[in-house]
Amino acid sequence: MSTGEQAIEILLVEDSPGDVRLTVEAFKDMKLHNKLSVASDGVEALQFLRREGAYADASRPDIIILDLNLPRLDGRQVLAEIKADERLKHIPVIILTSSSADEDIAHTYKLHANCFITKPISFEEFTRVITTVNDFWLSIVKLPPRDHLQGG
Question: Which BP terms from GO are recorded (predicted)?
């Protein structure tokens, strides 16, 4: 893990309370000690990432898990804003959404998403997906050092 012994900071951008609960439970089941912050819409996610208003002291996440279908500002727009921002564009963005539409997959990769995962329906499958995300993105992949992401 590139951040040494520190817990990985994860921002989950998800408007469904049920999916937030599933994600939290899946991480708990794996006994992960990562810090999971939640933004319930696209506007809140960008405020969190830009450390605006109530999020002035928010930690910069090491990874973002982003739903596409969000209120106020949709996930595609959030992804475009993240990847256009010099301070944020290096943060890996995992798309985790109910969509499996080819146009959504193609569009998010054009916007530089790091991967696209369609949400499974069952808790067991959802837990397997979160375990796989953990195994790959949080255990194998070397994430950028935090000091390179703290500016701005």
Answer: phosphorelay signal transduction system
3-state secondary structure of 95: strand
Burial class, 76, CB count within 10 angstroms (exposed 0-12 / middle 13-18 / buried 19+): buried
Integer angstrom CA distances of residue 142 from 47, 62, 80, 136, 137 = 26, 10, 23, 10, 8
Tell me: the pLDDT tens digits for 55-113?
999 999 999 999 999 999 999 999 999 999 999 999 999 999 999 999 999 999 999 99
Q: Where are the alpha helices (DSSP H) in the chain?
A: 17-29, 42-50, 75-84, 102-110, 123-133
Do residues 10 and 34 touch, judged by C-beta distance below 8 A?
Answer: yes
Which DSSP helix (H) or strand (E) runs through 151? Answer: none
- Band of pLDDT at residue 152, cut at 50, 70 and 90: very low
- Asked if residues 92 and 63 have their Cβ atoms less than 8 Å apart, the reply is yes
Domain 9-142 has CATH 3.40.50.2300: yes
Q: What DSSP state is assigned to residue 47?
A: H
